[in-house]
Each structure stands twice: as structure tokens, then as C-alpha cells.
Amino acid sequence: MIRIGSIKAALDEDLSDLTALCARKLRIDAGHIKSVKLSKKSVDARKKSDVHFVLSLDIETDNEASLLKRLKNAAAVKEYVYNIEPVKSGCKRPVVVGFGPAGMYAALVLAMSGARPVVLERGYDVDTRCEKVERFRNEGILDTECNVQFGEGGAGTFSDGKLTTGIKDKRIGWVTERLVEFGAPEEIRYLAKPHIGTDKLREVVKRLRERVISLGGTVEFGARFCGYETADDRIVSVTYERDSELFTIEADNVILATGHSARDVFELLYENEVSLSQKVFAVGVRIEHLRKDIDKAMYGDFAGHPALKAADYKLAVHLPDGRSLYTFCMCPGGYVMAASSEEKRLAVNGMSCFARDAENSNSALLVNIDTSDYKSEHPLAGMYFQREIEEKAFIAGGSDYSAPAITVGAFMERTSCEGFGKVTPSYRPAVRIASPEEYLPDFVCDTLRQGLKEMGKKIAGFDSPDAVLTGVESRSSSPVRINRNEHLNSVSVRGLYPCGEGAGYAGGIITAAVDGMKCAEEVIHTINEGV
Q1: Which in 125, 352, 419, 514 has the greatest CB count within 10 A?
Q2: How far apart are CA 452 and CA 450, in angstroms?
Q3: How confident is the model over 5-25, as pLDDT tens digits?
Q4: Euclidean distance between CA atoms 396 and 327, whole angstroms
């Protein structure tokens, strides 16, 4: 099989018959083509007068050698097969703490190995979780154990299901194939910027859970990890709380995939002298524009073409003082979500459904925070930094989980904001007009102002006075790393595997899932080798 890239296709071009398209584009006889598969599809909108698709195709022909010689954009490819080693019978069941992307894929690999994992998830199943999240959005009543951060599927379930990643790992294809198997759209196999959408992702995580259970695994919801015991520096059991009752499970191997918002777990580990370290992260706000305006800015006269989805963007500016401003988790046609998980602390996130057809498009607008900004050597200083700004944001919003919001115009000009213009804030339960100065450090606000001006030069209208800034975006990544060795064990406790985004080793659904797989592989090896 060979992969041929950089194939240009017009927006109106028929892509339903890939064999005919391949024969036409490569000037080869269709009769020599055995199979064609779309491996990548992206939009090239660099020239607004010529917006088009760029394709990569995986082709099987009877003259591949000649094509490889003739085409500069062709390379041989070999399909990767992911093999899961079966575990020895009679082993203790491994425990997976957390059922976000890292925990889900760790549990799936362990279940497929025959290890019959036990999953402990402090939140609830995704259907119950949806009810809790909607109640918070409608009534401002927060459940601190089940919310946008905690529950089946993790924080990613209430985002956009974005699958973009900067890592290159052979496991990524296997992650994607399982998502499709469990109900994700097939287009995630080839889109350059794939996403599942919150609405479809909810069904995917349920089916993944059902597969884990069908293979002998157990998933316990409402089960908050609250302790562990060791012997000779090796974990021997974990304790969890459910309905005010404590339970203990004997376990030699525990994958800790609790996510970046499980702050009580960080505190528990610190009290038990587990090695932790500070980690850089970022804070800022969500910026909202009308979806149609972003589409126009990105696609020009092609905006609204039926072959094009809602436009996305990715921006970064580096300022003379060393600070950076960048966009993150861009949600075309989406909503700003109430993402708090602690009482009297406010956080926001972004979410899109698969159709991405809501009125506004939003993105995090983040300023890099260095460990020197914490003003402390304490390993949890970054977490305390987060909490402080979330407490201020809660107060700025009126102390009822309304979010502080302001127009870009009022923020940039440092004037009072009398109301909102053509962009209506999408955050629920409500917003209250307040400037980021009320909850963010001065250097963050200065960077936002300077960076927004520069971003406006890159995307027309990005710094439009009517755009809306809603705060605070504080959960982009973990400010803490749980230190682990080359075998992915905690450097302090053998058999404890810090995993995923919360442990400081991932930055999104795909990277977290891959890290979960890696930790599961180490657990399987440990079981089989009797380490």
C-alpha cells in the first residue's frame, strides 16, 4: 500500500468515488486500482480566493513501485497492528481510578487482556451526569462530585470531543478505531482536525464502558478514591467512599487517572509524601464571536459553502516581554460552559455538539503561567494559584455561579460596559458584567490586551469590540505533575501509575488515551513478570 498526499480537490468536487478521483488525479488506469481509502482531508483556506480541500489517499495498485518512483508525494505505508498481551490467570484485579479518556483506555486494554479491572469513578454515569450538568446550567446548583469535570468520560465529554494532538504515536490509530467502533463518526479516521461532538461522545463513552464490563471489568460510579495502603513501598490496597461508606480493595497495581481537577487527590498524595512537582499551565478567558463572522473571516466568499463545516482557528502571539497569548480548545458553533467543580469557585470551558451549528463560536484565550509566577516552592502552588483566581471570578460574577463577562471593546479601552452588542454571551446560568481585572493578575490582563490587538491583525474582526470575554478559563491543564519513572510507576510508590492529563502527562483526549494504554501495558507486563 502507498500513501499519496497533497492531492488538491475543489469544494464542489465529487469525493464519493475515490477510485475515479484517484485515477483522474494521478493519471492512472482505474482498472489497476485495487482499493482506495481516504487517510486525510483538510481545508486549505490560506488564499480566500481559492479555498479547497487537500487529500491524502491510501492506495493499493498493481504498479505501486512505478508510482513511488513517479510521484514525489508518495510513500509506502504499512498498517500497524496493536497486540494486547493476555495476563496470567489468578492475578489480583488491577484498579483504575478515574474514567476519563486515560482511565477509559487503560480499563479497555486491561479488560481485553483478561485482567478484569475495577474502575472507580467519583462521578456518575453519563446520563445522570447530563442531568446534573443541566441543573447547574439552569439553576446554578452545583454537585461537587458530578459536573463538567467529574463523571463518566471525564472533562472531555463536555467539551467538543476534539481529537487533534501534537504527539506522534503508533497507538493513535487504534484509539481512533475504537472510538468509531463505539459510535463516533467515521470521518474522524481522516479529517485533519477531527471531532466527535459532545452529543455523540456521550453514546461513545457508554458503549466503551459496556465493552469493559462485557470483558469482565467492573465500573463503580459514585466511588471517590480517598486513600491507599502500602507495604515495603508497594501499594497493596485502595480505599474509596460511596454514599458515606468506606470500601477497601486489595490491589497490587493502581492506575491513577483522576484528571486535572481532582485537587483533593493532589492534597492526599502530598500528605502521603508522594513525589510531586510544579508544572507550567495557562489561564485566561473565553472569547466569543458570531459563528458567521468567523466563517467569513476564515473562508471569505466561500463561507456558507455546503461542503465546509463551521470554521475553526488556532492563533498564538509572542510578546516582547516574554509572555504569550494563544487560543486553545476552539469550539466552532458552540457554547461557553459552566465548568466549576468546587463550591464558591468559578471556572468556564467550551463545548460544541457534532453539528457545530450554535450561533456563537468560542475559544479559550490563554496566557502562559510560569512556575515563577506562583511565588512559592510548594508543589501544589499552581493549584492554589488556580483556586485564588476562581474564587475571585466567583465573586466578580455575583457569587451565584454567574460568570463575569465583558465586551472586547470595553476591556481594550478600559471603559465601563453598558451591555452587549451583536454577540450574546452563551454562558448559563447567567453572566454579570465585570472586567478580567477583578479576577486575573495584572500581567495576564496586560497580555490579553496586547495579544488581542495582534490577533486582530491575523484574523479580521478577531478583536471586534462586540466580541465577548467570559471568565475564568483556569482548567486548561494540570498545574501539578505526579512524578513517575521510566516504567510509569510513581517514583514514591511501586504499583501506583500516575496517568493522563491530571498527572501531568497528557494534554487532550488522544494524548490521555494513549497514556492510559501505555500504563495498562506496564501493568500487564508487571503482572506477567511478577515484578
Answers
A1: 352
A2: 6
A3: 899 999 999 998 999 988 888
A4: 23
